[in-house]
Specification:
heterodimer, A: about 290 residues, alpha/beta, Rossmann fold, B: mainly alpha, Growth Hormone, Chain: A
Chain lengths: ~290, ~200
């Protein structure tokens, strides 16, 4: 009897797993795209073979809730640039962050760059992503987009890089030359927030490359996640008290997204260390995918 | 006629072609991205250039075929790679400014950068066959062996570049090494003793 109860308890505990259901599957030009429902959570996955990395998740019962810590962490730039007017997001995912920004900074213009048309379609169809009048979606390679923008003299004050899906990293979006193009596209008080790699041989090379381009660099890692976020600025960061005050001011607006900004300010580690022997990533030398496997 | 030398040269030619093709993606990415059409442009240009190279190389082998002329193909190939690390960036910038659509931009840029050296490298295979064939009835076998050697070279060029060279060297350094290998091949052929080619 006891054993039966244990089996039943186990079955119950596992049941949400069993209910996971792939509701959409497609092979785009760049990747496999899957949409998986599990309980009230709907997730966008780019690969199932090697890892079950979710790209983006939505709680269908509470669509505003930011399920992933990393999505919350991408808001860290608000600690140093509290009121962005022009936002550039590279890598759309499920379109979670554009929705958050359209609530936090409704007046801000948002340029959303995504290389894969299929991702945009899936975001619209399955993740309630509806571009507002303030948003422009560009289906384009981000490097090309930024070069064209630079030629026109376009700038942004909040740039997010979230193009690194884990299985294959676009190497030309990690080089010193690319980051210099990003820096040129930033306003003086603008901020770059990048979702990057916390482990592997890539860590040092990447930190070194960011540090070579941006005078102000900080890293944010939270215990609950493997992600690390790099925050970079052209000018020195505001001091810690200012950042904490900015986090405090964000508390109320972020409540709706079930997110607490304080840990972001508390874990804002300025000038993250990296190995002095790390080789910079350049357009000439960028074996990013090989380094990541080390 | 030193058959081993000809096979070695054909192997190197195959190796260099694919190594450059792989580097092509890296060279174009800063300007045209790494979208699927960038690879489409590169492969198209290489295929067109190789097909023309085969045609021209075959025609060329009709007139006074010699190891020395064969060697000069390698020298010319090495020289034509020069612009890639000389003014590749300026050229891509010029294309980028004039052509808004990255599909045609990458096609045009690949054409400008890779077309000529690849035509030269494509000429190697048919010319090698001409130098190697002694009698009509062995021509198929010789051609088969030659394709085996040069395509095997291509396989190693692909593997070596994507697995190791890009981890060890900068793109320009790899290009320089490839040009060096072509020059060396050319010199070996030019310096080889003059020999009669089977009529």
């Amino acid at each position: 009897m006891k054993r039966l109860a244990a089996v039943l308890a186990l079955a119950l505990a596992l049941s949400p797993l069993a209910q996971a259901e792939i509701i959409h599957e497609e092979r785009s030009l760049y990747r496999n795209i899957l949409v998986r429902d599990q309980g009230s959570e709907r997730c966008l996955l780019f690969t199932v073979r090697r890892s079950n990395r979710n790209q983006s998740c939505l709680d269908r019962d509470d669509p505003d809730r930011l399920i992933f810590p990393y999505a919350r962490m991408m808001l860290s730039g608000l600690l140093v640039t509290p009121a962005p007017k022009r936002i550039l997001m590279v890598g759309l995912g499920g379109g979670t962050l554009p929705k958050v920004f359209s609530v936090l900074t409704p007046q801000a213009q948002q340029d959303l760059v995504e290389i894969d048309e299929a991702v945009v379609t899936v975001a619209k169809r399955f993740f309630d992503f509806t571009p507002t009048a303030q948003m422009a979606v560009h289906v384009q390679d981000a490097r090309v987009f930024l070069k064209r923008a630079a030629a026109r003299g376009t700038t942004w004050d909040y740039i997010m890089l979230d193009a690194f899906t884990g299985d294959y990293i676009p190497e030309h979006l990690m080089t010193k030359e690319f980051l210099e193009e990003v820096r040129a596209a930033l306003t003086d008080d603008g901020v770059l927030v990048a979702n990057t790699f916390a482990s592997s041989a890539l860590y040092d090379a990447e930190t070194a490359t960011y540090a070579a381009v941006f005078p102000a660099l900080a890293e944010i890692r939270l215990d609950e996640t493997l992600n690390r976020i790099l925050v970079a600025q052209k000018q020195p960061f505001p001091d810690e008290a200012t950042r904490l005050a900015a986090a405090e001011a964000l508390r109320r607006p972020l409540r709706r997204f079930a997110s607490n900004p304080l840990p972001l300010a508390q874990n804002f580690n300025v000038a993250p260390p990296f190995s002095a022997s790390a080789r910079l990533l350049t357009d000439q030398y960028a074996p990013v995918n090989l380094l990541q496997q080390r | 006629m030193d058959r081993k030398l000809i096979f070695l040269l054909a192997f190197t030619g195959g190796f260099v072609i694919m190594s450059i093709e792989l580097l092509g993606g890296r060279i174009l990415a800063p300007w045209f991205g790494s979208s699927v059409y960038v690879w489409g442009s590169i492969i198209t240009v290489f295929m067109i250039a190789l097909s023309l190279g085969y045609l021209i190389g075959g025609r060329l082998s009709l007139r006074n075929p010699s190891l020395q002329r064969f060697g000069s193909l390698f020298i010319a190939g090495a020289v034509l790679l020069g612009p890639l690390y000389g003014f590749g960036d300026e050229l891509m910038a010029a294309v980028f400014e004039r052509v808004e659509d990255p599909r045609y931009g990458s096609l045009l840029a690949s054409m400008a950068l890779f077309f000529l050296p690849t035509v030269l490298l494509g000429m190697i295979s048919p010319y090698s066959v001409r130098l190697l064939v002694q009698a009509k009835d062995e021509s198929g076998q010789v051609a088969g062996l030659l394709y085996f050697v040069s395509t095997f070279g291509s396989a190693l060029g692909t593997l070596g570049t994507s697995f190791y060279f890009i981890l060890w060297f900068e793109v320009d350094t790899i290009l320089l090494l490839l040009s060096g290998a072509l020059l060396l091949c050319g010199a070996l052929a030019l310096l080889a003793p003059r020999q009669e080619v089977a009529p």
